[in-house]
Amino acid sequence: MIVLDTSALLYWTLDPARLSLKAEQAIEQAERIVISSISVWEIACKVKRRKLVIPLTITDYVERLQRLEALEILAVDVQTWLDNLDLSWEHRDPVDRTIVALATRFGCPLITSDQAIAEYYSKTAW
Question: What domains can be seen in the chain, in order of their start residue?
Answer without folding.
Answer: 2-125 (3.40.50.1010)
